Amino acid sequence: MKKYESWGRYPRVEHSRVERVLWRDGLPHLSNIAETVLPYGYGRSYGDSCLNEAAALIDMSQLNRFLAFDAERGVLKCEAGVRFDEILKVIVPHGWFLPVTPGTKFVSVGGAIANDVHGKNHHSAGTFGCHVRQFELVRSDGKSYICSPTENTDLFKATIGGLGLTGIVTWAEFSLKKIHNPFIEMENIKFSHVDDFFEISDEGFESVVSWIDCTATGKNLGRGHFTRGNHAGLHITKETPGEMMLPFPIDAPQFLLNNFTVKAFNSLYYHRQIPQKKSAVVHYNPFYYPLDMIDGWNKMYGKRGFLQYQYVIPFNGNEKAVTRDIVGRIAKAGTASFLAVLKKFGDIQSPGIMSFPRPGVTLALDFSFGGNKTLKLLKELDEIIMENNGAVYPAKDARMSPESFKKYFPQWEYFSQFIDPKFSSSFWRRVTA
Amino acid sequence: MKKILVIGATSAIANETAKLFAKDGAELFLVGRSGDKLQAIEADLKVRGAVRVASHKLDFTQLTGYEEMIEASINTLGGMDAVLIAHGTLPDQKACEESPEKMLEEYTVNCTSFLKLLTLLGNYFEKQGKGTIAVITSVAGDRGRQSNYVYGSAKGAVSLFLQGLRNRLAPKGVHVLTIKPGFVDTPMTGHLPKNPLFVSAQKIAKGIYSAMKSGKDVVYLPGFWKLIMGIIKAVPERIFKGLKL
């Protein structure tokens, strides 16, 4: 029986009903539903932005047909429930890749638009919304709107990053990125302190991401690996490895992920590469989607679930010091996990009103949910982010306060005029209370 | 297996199976009731890799137009390597008990239409001396039960017909596959309460795809239904008649 949860499995809520959409002409009659509704894809958002407690969800996962693929110009049109992994299976053999992809390929096209997802290539390609050419939005007024940069522009900009609140996206058309093969030429550089992250260049590399050890302290504070790569040139040929997914089948017991095990793992992981710099050619799967190799890795956090926190602070001269400060606090608090990802956002603007990425430094963290201790630390971090005119990413949030949300997204009021009155989410009600 | 006729192509299981063949670059002829749905599926299968896709509207609540449909399929695809027969409904057992007309209507869709198709296709494949006839019946056809024996007996009749057809066509080099799914989560069972035995249409499709390619005779999908139905069939009639299954 299908469960309607978010990826962090916190909070866990009950919905009044779930309507499943099978065909584009089979959308539920919203006037027949008393409660508010929210479209739901594959529940890969971490917090409550994909939940609608005590109200209705519209399960879009079976609206998953391709409509057209122009393999010459690299344009794909498909229904909103199509998943990124299905898209890759179709387009990669024709020499195309997703223009922007988040760290998991198990997201829907609708979800990618609703969260205006970003990936390791923000500085070179912007967000997913930057590559959307048009989509169809169906609203509770019974009308359907074709939205593009030139048609129904307001709805276009509101829906990108609009968290599913403006209506139902039924299909979308977007541009693809030309590639020669499924491989990535990459370099992995070890750095011994988070300050060093700022010295390593990303010039000439499309995709850049760093993993840092949030349990190390002192002179090892925020040590990590800086990974930079490009889609491989024509000269690369390799046997394509088969897809292999190892399932994480059960809820892991509480003791599996605690500060000692995480510290130990981080230490081993940091030292796994002996030379300071290593180059390799890898398949796109382990480069873009390392965690997807473990199906259901969120269960590693056990039944209590976990919280994700991703913030961005702008380039204001302070970013190095602030990053050091934040990483120091997390290491001291001893509540971190091993999934700490550090990146820079570039200045390619997204059309989305509520888009999260802006030029600056962004850090994404997992926290095993340890009750008040965890919430207190995150509130502390919120204070720092607010002080620095940064923002926290709604797609990952389960606990930010209305006060901080309104500071992170001062345009929220302007955005709300485009929200469809029949649509709502647990996230939205929480942050606009 | 390149040229495939898919009957009941808009059904969830057939649709998922067609996707797998599309990936192999198959040529597909889709038959169903709804022109809009067929069109949507056509476009999807083309993107997924089908070299050619065409569709044809036909309603199996009646028994005419079958010869024309088969001819259209052969002409459009330039032959036929395989056929998957997957159309059908899940009858309201109670309504069928109360109305013989309703019962006969359901029998047309779920039994007689299949038998007519198999008569025509059986002859075609026999002449050709090769090919695959794959038909979705059901575990319900293994034993008559008070909760769904109209459906069960219709499917059971088809399973028996296929067994005879297999016996006739095996020496002629034609593969006849009986597909017996258990509980599947599709629009057909949308109104039924779900239990842990339900599986996705995708899972069934994978089983059908591999059984069609490997030349199996009868497949229970998922495989554990073979054991379950083995037990059900073994229960003596004097006991079974008192059960409420």
Describe the model.
- The complex is a heterodimer of chains A (433) and B (245).
- By secondary structure, chain A is of the alpha+beta class.
- Helix content of chain A is 22%, strand content 24%.
- Chain A is built from twelve helices and 20 strands.
- In chain A, the strands form five sheets. Chain A has an eight-stranded antiparallel beta sheet with strand order 15-11-13-12-18-19-17-20. Chain A has a five-stranded antiparallel beta sheet with strand order 4-5-9-7-8.
- The radius of gyration of chain A is 21 Å and the shape is globular.
- The two termini of chain A are 33 Å apart.
- Chain B is globular and about 55 Å long.
- In chain B, helix 1 (12-23) packs parallel to helix 2.
- Chain B has a single domain (3-240), classed as 3-Layer(aba) Sandwich (Rossmann fold).
- The model of chain B has no long low-confidence stretch (mean pLDDT 97).
- Chain A binds chain B through residues 1, 20, 22-25, 65-69, 78, 89-90, and chain B through 23, 36-37, 40-41, 43-44, 47-49, 187, 190, 194-196, 198.
Number of helices of chain B: 9
Order of helices and strands of chain B: EHEHEHEHHEHEEEHEHH
Strand order of the largest sheet of chain A: 15-11-13-12-18-19-17-20
Biggest interface, residues from each chain: A-B, 14 and 16 residues
Return the structural class of chain B. alpha/beta
CATH class of the domain at 183-399 in chain A: Alpha Beta
Strand fraction of chain B: 15-25%
* Separate helix tally of chain A: 12
CATH domain class name of chain B = Alpha Beta
The average pLDDT score of chain B comes to 97
Radius of gyration of chain B: 18 Å
CATH topology of the domain at 183-399 in chain A: Alpha-Beta Plaits
Mean pLDDT of chain A: 91
Structural class based on helices, strands and sheet pairing of chain A? alpha+beta
Main sheet: strands, sense, barrel of chain B: 7 strands, parallel
Helix content of chain A: 10-25%
- Assign the CATH superfamily of chain B: NAD(P)-binding Rossmann-like Domain
Distance between the termini of chain B: 40 Å
Spans of at least 5 consecutive residues with low confidence of chain B: none
> Per CATH, which architecture of the domain at 183-399 in chain A?
2-Layer Sandwich
Number of discrete domains of chain B: 1
